[in-house]
Design brief:
It is built from nine helices and seven strands. The chain has one domain (about 5-260): Rossmann fold (3-Layer(aba) Sandwich), CATH 3.40.50. A seven-stranded mixed β-sheet has the order 3-2-1-4-5-7-6, with helices on both faces. Helix 1 (about 5-20) crosses helix 2, helix 1 (about 5-20) runs antiparallel to helix 3 and helix 6 (about 140-150) runs parallel beside helix 7. With about 260 residues, it is of the alpha/beta class. The longest helix has 13 residues, at about 25-40. It is globular, with a radius of gyration of 17 Å. Helices cover about 40% and strands about 15% of the residues. Strand 2, helix 4 and strand 3 form a beta-alpha-beta unit.
Length: about 260
């Protein structure tokens, strides 16, 4: 896949807007997410589940606007407190800060805002999805529900990414990524960028990548027992072992875009 010559400058401008926005999306993840957006096929919309204060929204909207990829559908009730959301430090909602972020960056017209829960949006959903970014409820039930509700609308070649797959607090992202993506022949190339897990929906030839995916699945699956909601904060030997196992998983590179294409 040949990338646009000006892509680096487009992502860099977006990062300069986003770098001071509160949130837990690392710079490497931000850049990887923007790259996945440009690698996604032309058919469908970009869907973001979990926007918080708009950091990842800027990554998606910057690329979508510049290259004419259609709207970014932002889904988040922006309520607090929530079991798996960042602490709002007394605020009742992140919505005003979210609006400030996208307006300051000039992307308000690029973003279709749904201030509600993903399951409510899914009830009437009928559009194809070119990129599905899941960063909402990190419990297993919540993450699985988001994947199950929206993955049937993935267009061939669509990108799927989950935040915090290599996080140490919640089992949802890592379990869904391992069980429903890495171990499914509906998906092709896959990998990790920092804590973000990503893959391409390729039901036509995903089996070609089964060995690579299973290798990642084997490595990543060993982390699941450590992040079970019943375990609490990792301490002592459990914490050390978790870090050792996590360190064995390749997770510090951007996606290999030469693999992200339809044959």
């Amino acid at each position: 896949m040949k990338l646009p010559a000006d892509l680096d400058s487009v992502i860099e401008r977006a990062w300069q807007h986003a770098r001071t926005v509160p949130g837990f999306l690392a710079e490497l993840e931000f850049r990887a997410l923007a790259l996945l957006a440009i690698c996604a096929p032309n058919d469908g919309v970009i869907v973001e589940i979990g926007s918080f204060k708009g950091k990842s929204t800027l990554a998606l909207a910057s690329v979508a606007e510049h290259y004419g990829l259609g709207p970014v559908v932002s889904i988040d009730p922006h309520t607090a407190p929530s079991v798996t959301d960042p602490d709002l430090k007394g605020q009742s909602s992140s919505f005003n800060d979210f609006l400030t972020t996208i307006r300051t960056a000039g992307f308000e017209q690029q973003i279709e805002i749904h201030r509600t829960f993903s399951k409510d949006v899914a009830k009437g959903w009928n559009r194809k999805i070119r990129l599905l970014w899941i960063d909402g409820d990190h419990t297993y039930i919540g993450t699985k529900e988001d994947f199950d509700l929206f993955s049937p609308f993935l267009t061939k070649g669509a990108m799927v990414a989950l935040h915090d797959t290599l996080g140490k607090k919640f089992e949802g992202p890592i379990r869904v990524f391992v069980e429903n993506i890495l171990r499914s022949n509906d998906f092709g190339p896959a990998g990790f960028s920092y804590s973000m897990g990503w893959s391409q929906y390729r039901p036509h030839d995903g089996i070609r990548f089964s060995k690579e995916r299973e290798r990642l699945a084997y490595q990543a699956a060993r982390l699941i027992s450590f992040v079970s909601q019943n375990r609490g904060e990792l301490k002592g030997w459990a914490k050390i072992r978790y870090k050792l196992l996590r360190g064995l998983i390749p997770h510090a590179e951007l996606p290999a875009v030469e693999q992200l294409k339809l044959d």
